[in-house]
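--- STAGE predict ---
source: upstream dedup step, 1 unique chain passed
mode: sequence only
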Amino acid sequence: MTGRAFFACLLSLGAWFAVMAPAAAETSVQSGDTVSIQITEAPEMDRVSVVDPDGRVVLAGLGGIVIAGHGPEAIARIISAALREANLIRSPTVFVDVTEWRPVYADGRVRRPGSYEYSHGFTVRQLIIAAGGLDLALPSGSGGGLSPNELLAERKAVAYRLFQAEVLIAGLQEDLGLADAATAFDRTAMSQLTDQEADDVIRLDAALRAGARRKFEEEKSHLRKAGELLDFELTLLEQRSVLQQEEQARQDKEMATARELRERGLVPASRITDLARENATLSSGILETRSFAARARQERAANDHKVLVAETERDIALRTALSNALASRANLKAQLEVIELRIVQSAEASEEAQQPTQPVTSVTIHRMVDGASRSIPASMASLVEPGDVIEVAFLASPKS
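--- STAGE serialize ---
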């Protein structure tokens, strides 16, 4: 007996005992689950596949088969029926197993919110334990679970970033000619910084901007020098063109004279031929000079365009950086205001010094049913299904 046949026999025995035992409800397979499909009579059709967004798996010779919403045994029957209808296998033996379920998610008042691997029979209580248990820290409105010293440190860090944003905005406005950096920035955030820290921020920003300006000016200087060389080349080509035109006029005059003498029989015909050859060579040189001049003018125009593009790109980069810095400043100011409020609330909560109270836990399961999200009240013993989001809240917040 082959290993595959022996495995099939074991599975058949397992299925018989399952029929004799009380039946347990199967967990339905949905999009995102990974299933293993084995067909005893056609091992080449075996595959492990993730159920696609349409609830299907694709099998050779059958195409896409919708299996979402069914348990593994029902899926095996569906595939068997499809094999018979397609006249591929008369009496197929199909085994289906879920190798990986969609994860479940813990959210709300748990210590480690996030996704967790699903296992059959998973309950809300087990998921909360896996997520580190209930989070009994103070809610965000009373200090966010941070100690007074941690809040003060967070305020200092945000104030430092806010001052950096202020200095950056002032420098960018100066580079754009919108304001003087010495008076442009708001020094409110400096109250949380030492003089040395503020000086370091200002000095570093000035050095960075000076380096950027120097790099830009060097690029412009390089382009200007290239333009000057092209101008010099054009001047030489124009002088060469003038000399060639003068030479052509002289040759034309010499040709006319030679033709008159030839008519009188005073010069041989070869002299006319030589002059014509010289004139053709000179004409070719004139055309070549004009071609070089046209190319040089084209390169000069391209160089001027590069200068204009460099200036435009720098202006765009500065204005984009200014826009981002202004948005960052607004966000940091809002953060600072929230931290100040949390510091006050934390102090008030500490003064109350009330005894801890036992929180009343509320659990809600958010589950996709027929493509729609449903919110289901749950208890600690409620069973969790793959893909569920378990939200834990306190109806009475604990105090400390």
